[in-house]
């Protein structure tokens, strides 16, 4: 069960799903009740007194004990801070973190305005040892914290003492809790409080019928007549039946053990079934995370493809530069600007061939600017599409995400510039490596490494695919100039190989950059897929279920030795409760991880 608890605590669920709250509730019940009870099946019982607002449960607790241990009154909700009433002999157990470990303990008189975030311990010898009473907040309180705490406390109970009235006994909320009790196989004592003469004739019988139909046919129903005039405590004769039931249970160690065993096994079997449902939801979430990751990845793959297309079919020089000029100049007459860009690059190369000085850095700058603009625009488009998709399929996940994900990263400009520079630097090194003999090296050095690099970049970008008319003349002319220059130095076959290498190198760098941009979304998606997997959850649930069901049908009574000591109580349980078998106790001990040794296996 500890393994199951740890797996559930490590599980992650979508923010908008109730499943995460369900998993937390299961972990809380394991911590608050199941694991402590398995660790000590003979520890004092915890009876949680719960009920609807105005049912009179606090007055009933005080009257049953015969001491004012918890506040009661007309202000609703009356019970805010829960009060746990214990015999001094049991105080150590309930003051320890074994039960309800996340609730700090307080002692002494109730403080006005105390909130439902701590547990007040009240010690009194008037309550028999072996059983503690916890006055819980109203489960139907208007205060959200009160309702949540009431549910948590009821989940930690060995026994529910459920208080209702003729006016409220048929409420849906009442039966939500009682049906949950029936599903958990927990012991329930129902107290119908404040029953006047008119209601006495019909309501108890109707409530009994409803309890039987809900599977609570073995649960006891006690009726407390309406008391007109009383000071602090109800008349003793009205609460005597409830006091007798609780006192008899506290005095009977075998009955307490049987109740604790039945309740903890019922709780565990119910939890295992709930974990199965959680694992199914977890599997759906894992599939959703995979689909979301695939959709985001597709957006960035499209971005890479866009850059590759724009730098291989002439669009880098025809469309992206046009858009960039429009951004700066604010004119739609951008085609002539692009022509001037091509003409300028061609003239500068031509001026070099004619022996005239040319500012080659301007050509490099134009190419860098165009490539930079294409990369940044593609990254922004991918981020926008991904953000939009996230909002349509997982709005709550997007609401919790960093708003910066709606755009390309804040470092995209620098990253794109670095990509261009490193690509150019790589081309320079590659050109030098391919200038194998002295003649080639001399030609490269005489022309200038920058000029040769620019020529190779023009060959890569200025493909004539998809161009026509004036564009074809401009782009084609640029490509011819660059290609002829390179062929003069390296030869035709080598130029084709160099252009292919330059293209593949650029594509690889673009892919790496967009993987980095996509990784920002992957961190968000990982939050859905991280933690315990559905398979791990199911495996832990199966192991827990097997432990619960193991030897459930064995009825032979056999003395057991646990850690070398004979459990004499088994015989006591056999005589007091014939249905409590050694097999039953063995199951509990196996669930606790305690080795069980049969008498016949003991070394003599």
Automatic annotation (TrEMBL):
InterPro entries, sorted: GTPase_Era-like, P-loop_NTPase
Domain of life: Bacteria
GO cellular component: cytosol
Keyword terms: Membrane, Transmembrane, Transmembrane helix
CDD domains assigned to the protein according to its UniProt record, in alphabetical order: Ras_like_GTPase (cd00882)
Transmembrane annotation, as ranges: 447-467
Biological process terms in GO annotation: ribosomal small subunit assembly
Gene3D superfamilies the UniProt entry points to: P-loop containing nucleotide triphosphate hydrolases (3.40.50.300)
GO MF annotation: an example: ribosomal small subunit binding
Name of the protein in question: Dynamin family protein
Organism field: Corynebacterium endometrii
């Amino acid at each position: 069960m500890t393994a199951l608890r740890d797996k559930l605590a490590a599980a992650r669920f979508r923010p908008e799903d109730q499943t995460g709250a369900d998993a937390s509730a299961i972990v809380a019940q394991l911590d608050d009740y199941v694991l402590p009870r398995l660790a000590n099946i003979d520890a004092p019982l915890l009876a949680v007194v719960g009920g609807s607002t105005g049912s009179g449960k606090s007055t009933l607790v005080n009257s049953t004990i015969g001491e004012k241990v918890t506040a009661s009154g007309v202000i609703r909700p009356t019970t805010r801070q829960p009060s746990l009433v214990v015999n001094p002999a049991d105080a150590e157990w309930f003051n320890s973190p074994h039960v309800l470990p996340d609730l700090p303990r307080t002692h002494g008189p109730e403080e006005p305005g105390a909130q439902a975030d701590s547990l007040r311990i009240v010690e009194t010898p008037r309550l028999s040892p072996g059983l503690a009473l916890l006055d819980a907040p109203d489960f139907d309180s208007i205060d959200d914290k009160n309702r949540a705490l009431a549910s948590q406390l009821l989940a930690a109970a060995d026994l529910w003492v459920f208080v209702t009235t003729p006016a409220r006994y048929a409420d849906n909320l009442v039966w939500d809790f009682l049906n949950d009790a029936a599903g958990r196989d927990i012991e329930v004592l129902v107290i119908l409080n404040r029953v006047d003469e008119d209601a006495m004739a019909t309501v108890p019988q109707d409530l009994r019928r409803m309890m039987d139909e809900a599977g609570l046919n073995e649960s006891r129903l006690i009726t407390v007549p309406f008391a007109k005039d009383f000071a602090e405590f109800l008349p003793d004769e009205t609460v005597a039946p409830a006091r007798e039931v609780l006192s008899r249970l506290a005095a009977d160690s075998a009955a307490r053990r049987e109740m604790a065993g039945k309740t903890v096994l019922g709780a565990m079997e119910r939890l295992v079934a709930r974990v199965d449902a959680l694992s199914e939801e977890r599997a759906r979430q894992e599939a959703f995370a995979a689909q979301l990751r695939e959709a985001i990845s597709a957006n960035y793959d499209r971005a890479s493809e866009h850059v590759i297309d724009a730098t291989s079919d002439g669009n880098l020089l025809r469309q992206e530069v046009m858009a960039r000029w429009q951004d700066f100049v604010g004119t739609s007459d951008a085609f002539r600007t692009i022509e001037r860009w091509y003409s300028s690059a061609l003239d500068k190369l031509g001026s070099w061939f004619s022996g005239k000085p040319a500012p080659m850095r301007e050509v490099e700058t134009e190419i860098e600017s165009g490539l930079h603009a294409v990369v940044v625009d593609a990254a922004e488009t991918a981020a926008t599409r991904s953000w939009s998709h996230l909002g349509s399929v997982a709005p709550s996940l997007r609401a919790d995400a960093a708003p910066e994900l709606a755009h390309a990263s804040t470092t995209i400009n620098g990253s794109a510039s670095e990509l261009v520079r490193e690509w150019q630097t790589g081309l320079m090194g590659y050109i030098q490596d391919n200038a194998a003999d002295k003649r080639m090296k001399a030609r490269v050095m005489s022309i200038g490494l920058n000029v040769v690099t620019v020529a190779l970049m023009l060959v890569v970008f200025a493909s004539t695919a998809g161009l026509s008319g004036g564009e074809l003349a401009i782009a084609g002319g640029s490509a011819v100039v660059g290609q002829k220059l390179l062929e003069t130095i390296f030869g035709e076959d080598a130029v084709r190989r160099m252009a292919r290498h330059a293209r593949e190198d650029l594509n690889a760098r673009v892919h790496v950059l967009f993987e980095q941009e996509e990784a920002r979304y992957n961190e968000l998606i990982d939050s859905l897929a991280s933690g315990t997997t559905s398979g791990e959850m199911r495996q832990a649930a199966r192991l827990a279920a097997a432990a619960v069901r193991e030897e459930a049908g064995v009825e032979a009574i056999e003395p057991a030795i646990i850690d070398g000591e004979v459990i004499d109580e088994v015989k006591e349980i056999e005589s007091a409760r014939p249905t409590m078998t050694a097999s039953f106790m063995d199951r509990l001990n196996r669930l606790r991880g305690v080795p069980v040794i049969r008498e016949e296996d003991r070394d003599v």
